[in-house]
């Protein structure tokens, strides 16, 4: 499928350690000139659903600054572009929950907000778990709870969980595992 | 739950008809100074899952400029902040598929990418359908297909659909309706 958009030029607007904003001068599919503000994400979004032998998973609660809202989510974090996503996911799970896992299954590739950003995420199912110590980053003030996967899925269905990657990942695992 | 972040000042960086980028000077939860690049979305993201009496739904295919990738999604569009989200959803479904519907059910509130953006989306199930003419916007070059809801859900499970709102919405409808 050929790209119906043409890029005429790109203006760098903003850059920080996590994102880059560009304004693209474009020709839109109908042939007219236009602009496109594109937010490039420097990290992959990695969501992890740990699952123990009793059918429990873990959720992480934190205050999300851009939303000004508290959010319960699957363990999640950012993976640098030049790092293998599995390795990033393993590190994030360890940092946030202290858990290491033997069996890792990549269950999803997801584009979180494709009208404005190029953010790409991956969700992993992690099984064969060993508990350990958390290693929170200093920007984080996290609460971690353990609960049956079925209850986490109910928090999606009731609307209590609003994070996109968490909703998508939990519902996909539920369907894969008939929970 | 009290917000553990403190905002010291806000610098406006960029503004276009769809997004606004701000750099916030903050005190992070641990007490140190930091910055936060926040992307404000001027529109709500509205996803619609139309469902006819035979169990069919519709998907929309388009080239997504920020991804440089073709994407099959549920009918979707943006609703201005000052407009009722149901009205916006009804307009977007009509524009993209020509469909009007009698019964509308809001099935999801979703935050698409809450580490950087404040984008909020809503997914509606639309039933009691009447077919009509599409009214594509000029930036759009859309393909529309009709298919059983079950097949759309299979496209999620196989990884063919990667758009976050589409994945979340289709899996939730599938679970709600035992598809």
Automatic annotation (TrEMBL), chains A, B:
CDD domains: NUDIX_ADPRase_Ndx2 (cd24161)
Record carries keyword Hydrolase: yes
Transmembrane parts of this sequence: none
GO cellular component: cytosol
One record GO biological process: nucleoside phosphate metabolic process
SUPFAM superfamilies: Nudix (SSF55811)
Reactions catalysed according to its record: GDP-alpha-D-mannose + H2O = alpha-D-mannose 1-phosphate + GMP + 2 H(+)
Cofactors: Mg(2+)
Hydrolase listed as a keyword: yes
InterPro entries (UniProt xref): NUDIX_hydrolase-like_dom_sf (IPR015797), NUDIX_hydrolase_dom (IPR000086)
GO MF annotation terms: hydrolase activity
Keywords, sorted A to Z: Hydrolase
Residue intervals of the Nudix hydrolase domain: 41-169
Superkingdom, natural source: Bacteria
The family this protein is said to belong to: Belongs to the Nudix hydrolase family. NudK subfamily.
PANTHER family recorded: NUDIX HYDROLASE DOMAIN-CONTAINING PROTEIN, UDP/ADP-SUGAR PYROPHOSPHATASE
Protein name, UniProt field: GDP-mannose pyrophosphatase
Native organism: Indibacter alkaliphilus (strain CCUG 57479 / KCTC 22604 / LW1)
């Amino acid at each position: 499928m050929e790209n119906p958009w043409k890029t005429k030029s790109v203006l760098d607007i903003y850059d920080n350690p996590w994102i880059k904003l560009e304004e693209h001068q474009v020709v839109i599919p109908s042939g007219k000139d236009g602009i496109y503000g594109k937010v490039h994400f420097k990290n992959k979004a990695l969501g992890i659903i740990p699952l123990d032998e009793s059918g429990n998973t873990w959720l992480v609660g934190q205050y999300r600054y851009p939303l000004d809202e508290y959010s319960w989510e699957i363990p999640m974090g950012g993976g640098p572009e030049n790092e293998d996503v599995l390795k990033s996911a393993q590190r994030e799970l360890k940092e946030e929950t202290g858990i290491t896992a033997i069996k890792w299954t990549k269950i999803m590739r997801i584009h979180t907000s494709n009208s404005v950003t190029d953010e790409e995420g991956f969700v992993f199912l992690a099984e064969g778990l060993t508990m350990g110590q958390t290693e929170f980053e200093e920007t984080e003030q996290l609460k971690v709870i353990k609960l049956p996967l079925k209850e986490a899925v109910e928090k999606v269905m009731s609307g209590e969980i609003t994070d996109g990657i968490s909703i998508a990942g939990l519902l996909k695992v539920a369907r894969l595992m008939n929970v």
